[in-house]
Each structure stands twice: as structure tokens, then as C-alpha cells.
């Protein structure tokens, strides 16, 4: 197989499944042979990223696992890697150094999408795991683009964590009432102009029922757009 890409998924598995559905939906195919060539690695046993970031002394470090799988898959020589986990981008520099294969950077791509809708100075809210929020995985890209970063208050963050871990991950419960409450508070209480979904479990809820009362950007959806565009361009060059 030539002109393929590799998806490093399993963080979590249901969110990875959604990403695969997204790229298949977005691919302009009318027969089997027109879909994209890719390898999916559903590495679900990688230690939890947020738990390690928040308490590194008490939790297993996922970075060696991520480096190992990237180096294993690099031997197959994909055109690029896709990393379908926001929090895993905390380790991006180390992962990038571990392979000669390019890795798409989901947070950076998502922030670039904001310019399609908002001008410099917009208040950009970010919701995700505590590891993503407290370590500012999105913050430098938001600030470099000329926007203002808005983090959730602790009580909103507690609701986000409940939705991600207790509802979606633990029970496969896409609690849209809780999801809409979180977003209502981000837009109304914190006066955000746009909110980024900084966790792929939130992408699952947004895909299940979209929020209609404010501009929400789903980084996983942006990543799927870029993936399809890059893969289609590579295919055209090969032809």
C-alpha cells in the first residue's frame, strides 16, 4: 500500500471511531476504491494522559508508549500521522522528535480555523480535560493568533470532567443537557465569542446533537477536514 496515512487512536476508542466516520463522510467517494488508504492503530491501553499530567508521581507516563507506537508504525513509512487525542499533544515536541514522519497538530489546526469566523481579539474559550486546560495545551496557539484565552471556572471544569469521564467514557452517555449547560455558561457567564472542544469525547456529544446558540469549533472535525484534503492531494500527485 502506498500514499497512506496512519491514525494513532484509542484515546478514547469511541472518539477514534467518530474520527474514522468523519473522514469517511468527508471523502468524495462513489465506490470502494475512491476512499482513502490508511492504517488505524487503536492503542487503547496507553495510560491516561490527563491523569499523568495532573499527578505524574502517581501515574504511569504515556509518552514512552506513544513514542514506541510511532516508531513501530514509522517503519511502514506512512505519509503522515494523525493523533486523535487533544491531551496527548502535551507530548507533541517529544513525539515529533521520535519520528521523521510528519504529525498533524490538532490544536494548531483548530485555532487556525477560528480566523474563518472571528477577527483578532475574539475571546476564545477552551473546554477539555483538566490536563489540557491547566497545562495550556491550546493557549500559545490562541494567543499567537491574536485571540484572548478563556478557561472555564473550576465549577464549569468540574461539569466538563463529569461529562468526559463519568458520562461519555464510563457510560457512553452523550448527556446533551449537561453539554449545553456547559456551553451556555461559557458563552453567557464568560462572554466567549467562540468555544473550542479540547477533548474528543466532547466531539462525540457535539456530533450526537450540535449546540446551536454559539460558535463551537470541534478540533477533531477540523483534523478530519485537513486529513482528507492532504490525503486527496497526495493521491492526485501520485496519479
TrEMBL record:
The record's section on InterPro entries has: Asp/Glu/hydantoin_racemase (IPR015942), Asp/Glu_race (IPR001920), Asp/Glu_racemase_AS_1 (IPR018187), Asp/Glu_racemase_AS_2 (IPR033134), Asp_race (IPR004380)
GO function terms (MF aspect) = amino-acid racemase activity
Alphabetically ordered keywords of this record: Isomerase
Transmembrane annotation, as ranges: none
Instruction: Specify one Pfam family.
Output: Asp_Glu_race
Q: Which domain of life is it from?
A: Bacteria
Q: Which family is this protein grouped under? A: Belongs to the aspartate/glutamate racemases family.
User: Per its UniProt record, what NCBIfam families does this chain match?
Assistant: asp_race
Under PANTHER family, the record lists: ASPARTATE-GLUTAMATE RACEMASE FAMILY, GLUTAMATE RACEMASE
> What protein name is recorded for this chain?
Aspartate racemase
Q: Which organism is it from?
A: Vagococcus vulneris
